[in-house]
Amino acid sequence: MMMTKDKTGIIPLLGYSRDQLIELLNEMGYRPFHAKQLYSWIYYRGVFEFDQMTDLSKKLREELNSRFVLQLPRIVEQVQGEDPDSASKFLFELSDGERVEAVNIPTEDRNTVCLSCQVGCAFGCTFCATGQMGLSRNMTAAEIIGSFLAIRQNSEARISNVVFMGMGEPLANLEQVMKAYDLLTDGDGIALSKRKVTISTVGIPAQIRKLAEYSPPPKLVFSISSPHDEIRREVLPLAGRYTLKSVHEALSYYAQQTRHRITIALIVAEGLNDQLEDARALHQWIDGLPSKINLLRYNDAAGSFRRADEQAIERVAAELARLGRTVILRKSRGSDVSAACGQLAAREVRSGNDGDN
After folding, report:
1. Other C-beta atoms within 10 Å of 222: how many?
2. Is 314 among the catalytic positions?
3. Is 341 annotated as catalytic?
4. Which of 64, 108, 337, 356 is 20 to 30 A away from residue 86, measured at CA?
5. What is the pLDDT of residues 234-292, one digit of tens each?
6. Among 101, 143, 169, 319, which one carries the catalytic annotation?
7. Quick check: 144 and 98 in contact, CB under 8 A?
8. Domains, the chain, ranges and CATH?
């Protein structure tokens, strides 16, 4: 099998699937059960030092130490919000020096990790800090999984949910995201429920259809921004090129193929989508699509947008409910550490005094 070596000639092993480990160890003269033991140590037990894998033979451990390494992304900074129900933001440095962020969001009934999948983002959404960075590169499945495992090491509670809502557009890096999804949901490893993994997208019709063919797929969130094509073209320079009609057709296909209900996410900003006519247009666009609506308050991030007045947000929610839609008004978590929706930008959080240096 083809293996990528680092600058020292050592092969990074993180991100290998169980089948890949079986093939690798078979080439080294070992049996499949040795690979399964190694797989369990890495993903189930979270052990990354070969010497600590005590049920492996001394000979195998020595061979692994001489040829391979298990290296998690370096945590540059971990910031915990002051509020009891706030989030923890992690700034990671990858092996080539690039930086990405991820967020741990504990609540009473779940413990969610929000993962990034790209270094930056090419889509340039005008209300999103990541979108203003531009795209440096895609993350590998190993880097995505490494971010998760690093957070798991630093989380007091068991992680129950994963959302791909961090830096980057998941459907623009679908192959690596789905490799990570397989590792996250393998019952002999990390063992997350497939129903507890969610991908969020600004809407790429061809990739939505491709995701629908995956069995079983993760849950899907479509971030619509506006139910009006002309406004989407203004605020979503790339995603706005896809008409809402084409996105609706792709989402309908996804729902039909998977029997999943789509979540429509609307980040409510002043003057963008906070009027009753916007609620009615959204209702009309959804039509018969099996869905629920998540309304989120806009978080200061980029561009000239402002959070809508709370009464306006509640009016939009009430109108959608009156029209028969299932609506959830989400509480924003992590804004105090710039970790809420749209705020991730791979930068360190500094105090006011630090900023003067």
Report:
1. 23
2. no
3. yes
4. 356
5. 999 889 999 999 999 999 999 999 999 999 999 999 999 999 999 999 999 999 999 99
6. 101
7. no
8. 11-69 (1.10.150.530), 74-337 (3.20.20.70)
